[in-house]
From TrEMBL:
<protein>
    <submittedName>
        <fullName>Uncharacterized protein</fullName>
    </submittedName>
</protein>
<dbReference type="InterPro" id="IPR011047">
    <property type="entry name" value="Quinoprotein_ADH-like_sf"/>
</dbReference>
<dbReference type="InterPro" id="IPR015943">
    <property type="entry name" value="WD40/YVTN_repeat-like_dom_sf"/>
</dbReference>
Length: 377
């Protein structure tokens, strides 16, 4: 009954709304990294000085605590801070990360990431912290970017290092690591994807995926590789079984912009792939959706603006509205990633949506520094 009413409320855009003031002295527009865990919302205002993370209680509409990293400033990482099971992991300059209690702001643990670079990729699932040092540009790619580190958040200790044999000149490609359900996948410059068990350190699969711009994503019992050459305008999508490593399907020659790595993720049995095409003053996106449960081809969705999604059930995309191309705020639509495909629910106007999960949508007014939460349950 709860699921029925919740789905009906989303389909009809029926919600009750609560709002509160954030308390920022200066607007930072879209430079915020937002994470939500339960009723707590953490905002990393990237360019504030001194740098800090504010944690709000959504239900009570109050500021819960302010977290100031104890090690220099927050490092620029793909995806920023991580927030799971009441713990916020903050990557800092100097090759360390700090784990904080999100309700009190208390420092729980300092984790040595064994990294020297200021560019890193970080995953956190409430138990394990997965870190990988990445190059600022392709010219920096060398053997130091081969290792992926698995640490425990409780004691801050390194548990294992996932590495490869360097005798053949194997290197991790720039920003090509994914983590999900205790599994780590990475693309290497020898045209192979390697998949590990993060707990044991065992290499489970080596999967052929050629191309300098190749990418990997993990889904529900599938490994999806995006095979892309640097100067090609097409991308092959390869789907393997996580259990056996057997190739299940190859989707040939999906259009892709030359010199650009594919943007893609796997959500609720859907492969959502989008390609950026630069226009005068704008970035245009052609999005493709492939349903893993069906044998049909990829469905093309034409739109403008940057698609945004969350990590649970919903994704929202920005639809093409030519008359708005000179405006900063793009009209948006909320869509549900269902087992049967991407289903459009309702128009969201020009509001800046910063979070969507199963029960709520959070919007922000950067001019008034106000947060508005739409509760669908």
């Amino acid at each position: 009954m709860r699921a029925y009413h919740l789905d009906r409320n989303w389909a009809t855009n029926c919600f009750h709304s609560k709002g509160f003031t954030l308390g920022w002295k200066k607007p930072n527009d879209y430079h915020r990294i937002v994470r939500v865990d339960g009723d707590l919302l953490a905002i990393d205002n990237e360019f504030t000085t001194p740098q800090s993370i504010k944690v709000y209680d959504i239900r009570r509409r109050t500021l819960q605590c302010v977290i100031a990293p104890v090690e220099s400033t927050i490092a620029p990482v793909a995806g920023g801070i991580k927030f799971t099971d009441g713990v916020i992991v903050v990557p800092c300059l100097g090759g360390v990360a700090c784990a904080f209690d999100a309700r009190t702001g208390k420092l729980l643990q300092k984790i040595d990431l064994h990294l020297g670079s200021r560019y890193m990729l970080l995953f956190f699932d409430g138990e394990l912290v997965i870190t990988y040092e990445c190059a600022a540009n392709k010219r920096e790619n060398n053997e130091k970017f081969c290792d992926i580190y698995v640490s425990c958040v409780k004691d801050g200790q390194l548990q294992r290092t996932l590495t490869v044999d360097l005798t053949d000149g194997v290197k991790v490609c720039y920003y090509n690591v994914d983590y999900r359900d205790k599994m780590v996948a990475a693309v290497y410059n020898d045209d192979y994807i390697r998949v590990w068990d993060a707990r044991s350190g065992e290499c489970l699969h080596q999967l052929k995926c050629p191309g300098e711009e190749s990418k990997v994503k993990l889904g529900d019992n599938v490994i999806v590789g995006f095979s892309k050459a640097f100067d090609m305008e097409v991308c092959d999508i390869i789907i393997w079984s996580q259990d056996t490593g057997e190739c299940q399907k190859v989707i040939r020659e999906v259009p892709s912009h030359r010199y650009v790595r594919p943007y893609a993720y796997v959500l609720n049995n859907l492969i959502i792939y989008y390609d950026q095409i630069s226009g005068p003053g704008d970035h245009f996106y052609f999005m493709y959706v492939y349903n893993l449960r069906k044998e049909s081809g990829m469905e093309k969705v034409h739109h403008c603006g940057d698609p945004r999604r969350n990590e649970t059930k919903s994704v929202y995309i920005v639809l093409e509205e030519p008359e708005y191309r000179c405006e900063k705020a793009w009209p948006s639509a909320v869509c549900n990633a269902t087992p049967n495909g991407l289903v459009r629910l309702f128009d969201a106007g020009t509001n800046h949506i910063i979070w969507i999960d199963d029960i709520r949508m959070i919007l922000i007014d950067n001019k008034k520094h106000k947060l508005r939460v739409h509760h669908y349950w």
